[in-house]
Amino acid sequence: MAIDDVKTIPTAQLASYSLNGVAFDGKSSQEYPCSLKISGYARAARFKILLDSNSPDSNAPNSNPPDTNKTIKNPKAFPRRQAHLLHHNTADISLTLNDSWKFVPADYEELMQADQALHLRLFKSSFPLESVLGWSLLMLGIIAGFIYLLAFQIAPILAPQIAKTIPDSTISKLSAQGFQLFNQQHLKPSQLPTAEQQRLEQLFRQSLPGQSSADQSSIGSQQSLKIYFRHSKSLGANAFALPGGELIFTDALIQLADNDAELIAVFLHEYGHLKYNHTLIQILQNTILLSGFYFALGDINTFSATLLDIGPATLIWLKYSQNFETQADAYAIKQLQANGIGLNHFENILIKLETANTMSAEEPQDINNTATTRLPSLFITHPVTHKRLEALRESEN
Ligand SMILES: [Zn+2]
Predict the structure, then answer these.
(1) Distance 318 CA to ligand 1 centre (A)
(2) Which listed residue, 78, 233, 280, 363, has the most CB atoms within 10 A of its CB?
(3) Which residues of the chain have pLDDT under 50?
C-alpha cells in the first residue's frame, strides 16, 4: 500500500477484517476451511486466504501431530483488483480472487460489513450500471412498442367490435353527461328564434334518406336523432355529434352560412359520424387500454361504470381519426347529390369555417374565461380543409 494512502485515511477505516468460510482452488472440488483476512482500504485493499490447520493443504504432507494453535500454511494473497463478487442471492455468494481461487463466506453479512467499512465496492461492481440501464431501456422499448401496437394497430380493429357490446342505456348516460358538461362549460341557450330553429330542424331531417317513412330519425342501432341549437362564445362557428344521437349546432355557424344548402352539408357530415357510430368508437379507441382491461375481466358493468367516469370529459376534446372524417364526408357527398345540392356549398362552408376558426384562435384570450384558452376543434378537424376540398372537387367530376 502506498504511504500516502495511509496518511489520508482515518485509522478506524484501516481495521482489518477476518471472515470465516471455505475456499476452492479452482483445480479440484476440494473445500478448504479457511478465514479470509481483508486489510487496507478501497482499491489498495488486499485479500489473504488463511487455510485452517485441518484443511487438506495444511495437514499434508507432514502436519503430524495436528497443530494446536492452528498454524497457517501456504497463505494466498490477492490485490483488490483481482477480487470479484459473484452474487446471485444471499444464499449463493462467493468471491473470486483470481482466475482460480474462490472464497465462500460463512456469513454473508460479515462480508457486507467489511465491504462498507473498507469501501471495497464489491457489491456495487457486481451489478454494473450499464447492464441495469440496458435492460431498463430494452424493457421500455418493448412496452412502448406494445402501446404503439395497441393504440394504432389493435385499437382501431377492436373498438368497433366493443362498441357493439355497449348497452344503449350506457350510451345514453354517457351522452347525457357529456352534453351536461358542454352545457356547463361551453353552451348557452340559442338566440335564434324558435320558428327558425324548427324550420332548420325540418330541413335537416328532410335531407336524410327515406324522409317520408316513420324511421327517418333512426341511426345505426337504437339511437335516435335529436337536433339542438346553442349559443357558444368559446366554440365559435361549430357543430358536433354526441354518441347518443344528439347533434348540436352553434348560432355562429347558422349565421356564418350564406344559405340553407351549406348548413345541410354540415348537418349531413355530422349525421355521417352518428350513422357510423364514430363518436362512441373514437372514445373507445382513445380508452383502449381500459377496453382491454374490460375484455380481460369480461365484466360489462365494470366497464360501463368506467366509461361513464371518464367518457363524458373525453367528449369535449374528442378528435375523429382521418378515416372517420373521410367516411363522414363521403356520406355527406352522397346524400347532397341525392338531394340535388351542389357540392360547391359544402366547399364554401368549409372554407368559411376554416377562416372563422383561424381568426378566433388569433384573438386575444379572455383571461376570465378559462374555457376559451383552448378550443375544442369539433367540426374543424383533420383532414385539413384543403385536403377535404380536393376530395370534394374530385367527387364533382
Ligand atoms: Zn367530422
Answers:
(1) 10
(2) 280
(3) 1-7, 59-72, 212-217, 221-222, 362-377, 381-383
Q: How many residues does the chain have?
A: 397
- CA nearest to 226, candidates 182, 175, 164, 192: 175
Select 3-127's CATH number: 1.10.357, 2.30.29, 3.30.70, 1.20.58.
Answer: 2.30.29
Phi, psi values for residue 229, rounded to 5°: -115, 135
Contacts of 135 (CB under 8 A, 6+ apart): none
CA 274 to ligand 1 center in whole angstroms: 10
Q: 147 CA to middle of ligand 1, Å?
A: 26
Question: What spacing in Å lies between the alpha carbon of 190 and ligand 1's midpoint?
Answer: 22
The DSSP secondary-structure symbol of 152 reads I
| 379: exposed, middle or buried (Cβ count in 10 Å: 0-12, 13-18, 19+) | buried
Ligand 1 centre distance from Cα of residue 379 (Å): 5
CA dist 124 and 115 (Å) reads 10
Which among 109, 104, 45, 55 has a CA at the least distance from the CA of 77?
45
pLDDT at residue 127, as a whole number: 54
Question: What pLDDT was estimated at residue 269?
Answer: 93
- DSSP H helical segments within the chain, as ranges? 3-8, 56-59, 108-117, 122-125, 129-148, 155-165, 168-185, 194-206, 251-256, 260-275, 278-286, 288-297, 300-316, 322-338, 344-362, 385-396
pLDDT at 292: 61
Residue 350 confidence (pLDDT): 87
* Ligand 1: centre distance to CA 264 (Å): 14
Cα(243) to centroid(ligand 1), Å:
13
**By the 8 A CB rule, do 132 and 54 touch?**
no
